[in-house]
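yo

u said u wanted the structure for the complex thing, so here. seqs first:
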Amino acid sequence: MRHDVQPNALLATIAWNDAGLVPCIAQQHDTGEILMMAWMNRDAVLETLATRRVCYYSRSRKGLWRKGETSGQQQHLVALRLDCDGDALLALVDQHGVACHTGRRSCFSWEARDDTWSEIDAPRVDPATLYGA
Amino acid sequence: MRHDVQPNALLATIAWNDAGLVPCIAQQHDTGEILMMAWMNRDAVLETLATRRVCYYSRSRKGLWRKGETSGQQQHLVALRLDCDGDALLALVDQHGVACHTGRRSCFSWEARDDTWSEIDAPRVDPATLYGA
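structre next:
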């Protein structure tokens, strides 16, 4: 744990929603790929800054979600950015392996083409390999 | 208006939140810059697909927000993507001028450095020029 982070001023600037969350976009720092979007609460932001490993808040599990804890597909933080009205975060990360639970590199792997969402990237890893059969 | 878009199947796949909205990330299609994040409702998605000009839903003004309508800083849609659980959109766009109402190219222009959000990009246009004095 780093002890030189003084996060209170950082947290106070964030415009949390009514549930105490803020959306966070994860972008691969060197290629520019958008990997995923998820949510953070105060503890997730603090832990991410302190450990430099990205930690989200899982709305379905109602708890901290240390990305890659189960799958091994961790995200290492390169930089954390905030937008002009304070209600969205951008995490520049170094993604180990794939970001998506489907085994795809990016969660944004479907594109609107006429009247359907067309798959634009196939799984690179079998999810059973990531999460156990 | 394009009449070959059959959007109902597209809309039905989106996991709208309780307010009938979905977050949308805007990324410059060629450079990979993350420009902004805003929200869309059903009409905003339909209009964006039909006109190929990005239209959001303004939560503060409670109405459609045709990006660039006032400022001239329009976003032209290159592709619209959906994530694996259907609750976030990624718009690849061609941004005319700056995306941020502060005159900065990107809304994500503050970076966490120790205990402060440091400005990492300066305004390129005076907002008074964009919106009138």
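Chain A touches chain B at residues 4-10, 13, 23, 25, 27, 31-34, 36-37, 49, 79-85, 88, 90, 100-102, 104, 107-112, 114-117, 120 (CB under 8 Å). The two ends of chain A are 33 Å apart (CA to CA).
cya
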